[in-house]
Amino acid sequence: xxxxxxxxxxxxxxxxxxxxxxxxxxxxxxxxxxxxxxxxxxxxxxxxxxxxxxxxxxxxxxxxxxxxxxxxxxxxxxxxxxxxxxxxxxxxxxxxxxxxxxxxxxxxxxxxxxxxxxxxxxxxxxxxxxxxxxxxxxxxxxxxxxxxxxxxxxxxxxxxxxxxxxxxxxxxxxxxxxxxxxxxxxxxxxxxxxxxxxxxxxxxxxxxxxxxxxxxxxxxxxxxxxxxxxxxxxxxxxxxxxxxxxxxxxxxxxxxxxxxxxxxxxxxxxxxxxxxxxxxxxxxxxxxxxxxxxxxxxxxxxxxxxxxxxxxxxxxxxxxxxxxxxxxxxxxxxxxxxxxxxxxxxxxxxxxxxxxxxxxxxxxxxxxxxxxxxxxxxxxxxxxxxxxxxxxxxxxxxxxxxxxxxxxxxxxxxxxxxxxxxxxxxxxxxxxxxxxxxxxxxxxxxxxxxxxxxxxxxxxxxxxxxxxxxxxxxxxxxxxxxxxxxxxxxxxxxxxxxxxxxxxxxxxxxxxxxxxxxxxxxxxxxxxxxxxxxxxxxxxxxxxxxxxxxxxxxxxxxxxxxxxxxxxxxxxxxxxxxxxxxxxxxxxxxxxxxxxxxxxxxxxxxxxxxxxxxxxxxxxxxxxxxxxxxxxxxxxxxxxxxxxxxxxxxxxxxxxxxxxxxxxxxxxxxxxxxxxxxxxxxxxxxxxxxxxxxxxxxxxxxxxxxxxxxxxxxxxxxxxxxxxxxxxxxxxxxxxxxxxxxxxxxxxxxxxxxxxxxxxxxxxxxxxxxxxxxxxxxxxxxxxxxxxxxxxxxxxxxxxxxxxxxxxxxxxxxxxxxx
Length: 819
Known about the structure:
Structural class: alpha/beta
Radius of gyration: 30 Å
CATH architecture of the domain at 612-817: 3-Layer(aba) Sandwich
């Protein structure tokens, strides 16, 4: 350890007429740090002799009248220069602030040559789990004082606090980690690496980490002995600091009474708190050795782990674990290889630094904890786990996938998702033996089974793999097999694109399978290629899909019969199916579709909500007409009006393409909003929406069910289209054929009821607790003018107050409803 070096820092923030290189300074804020303390502040307005744009006035609160009284930059240049000339220049986005200030000073005869440090990059590296790194978000996460955002002195003061916190955190890191970080620190802007170098020179911090190669990992914590649950649901809720609701208590009682060897289906309306009810009821039973909960999406899985499971673990010291597929976890062997070299790409080197810090903090190794992967997806694809681990790997005992696989066997509460549940049961038939399984949002396990029963091969990626093998192959037989398979795959793609032939004959697949099997005998294996050639598939077709903004050609394989969940689960698994929507129609039940003949069904009575009301827009153009532009124009007009209410508004689409088109049109009108995939993943944009960054959120997919909007006292929910299944979808056609064979009506016995169930699920997203007011707008006139429309209104009217009006009248009623 060396003597501490005393350094003086000038933390600077500028407000300017714009963000371009020609912008002029309008406000300066400076905070001086010396000996790790704030010792001085300086602030001044600057008269730019320019009229400010409305945007800058709105952003900063600075006006032309205010600046008219301010000094010119030339009048304060000397004071500013003398204050910071012997300091290290620190800023949040230092490139903008330092360049702009240095240029203005140079014009007045002062040359600023101080080193520069950027707190944005430091924050990205040393706070790896944050979603955004703007000063406002960092202030919220780190409790920084930021009284008036976009005021120079306020921003500078918050940045100074941030810099002190960063220094403190960096100096507390293990010396070994700092040493590896310094290897990549030249990739940081300007002289930002100085902070790491100083910490490395001054500290020899003792650490309690597991060290393997260049990587340090957090030590596993010993499991705590579980505290006893009360047999009373109300008592357990009270221990959590929660007050049970009457319907929630009724649901909990049903769970406790009926979970036996016969599958139990419980239907209860959304918003009553089912998750706590089934968790506490089942964990309090001594014969529940392990409770496995499966939910539709990883988003909901993370949500339960962060909320209900975390609370139960804290109060009752119950061992809880979240289980996902291997690709969600980091493969330390792959990451270690990347650490052996300094990449030419600065972003990749910064990601390496970020992950080194994250590995000191993570308990799970789940890459979803790092929120900004979209900036370089291919990097994260390289370090994702593939489920394989060499016995000679130095990381064998600390591999995150191996640990999560082992922990899944012993944790009392295990949270997973439908897709991985099915994969795990197939790989390990004993996984659920003598366990209790809760299938939450149970209606989604049915389509998950269909997805599981299929296989697909990305022809573009397969051809690239073959080309790589051909470059390396020196065996004539292998070369001929690779060339033949490449020709067969290319032929399938050409038939699809040029001759528009989507169906693929069994004969073509048989020839392909023969060559793939021969190639496997020679030691060449491509998992997706081998899977799609399995004999269990009977039907093949080609589809075109967009992935990472590139059009991909995909070969699909499927079984003609519906897969039944009942055949996958062991007889000793006690199973509870939970949903607000289990009864599909009088002639079709979810239980029968899942293959169950004997089961228990409990349907708790629903009550009509006084805090949620549904309006159907009778004046909206029909979405299934040919004039799509007129439909979208009407939709944009309505969303623009709704945005003016300044209430949290969730807009649900059935089509990603339509959603993105509407988003682009809203951008042109400068209507602030967030759009799924366009502005980030569903998890990230939901958190931004919940924080109130914007009031308008456009979503599809997972936003229809399983995502709760519980934080808002008032919400507007817009449903753009009735969520019917696509009749051309292979899965829908398979179900329809099954129903026809049973002499049932595919539309009235399945498609219409399922659409209504999906609609009710969506409406439950904004009605999650007592006294949460929700206005729901259905912008699909088919609910008014089709032969089946009365059935829609009758079904929805059981749970909701319904009003059918023109849009103008709806707006008037909504404004009074959400006063």
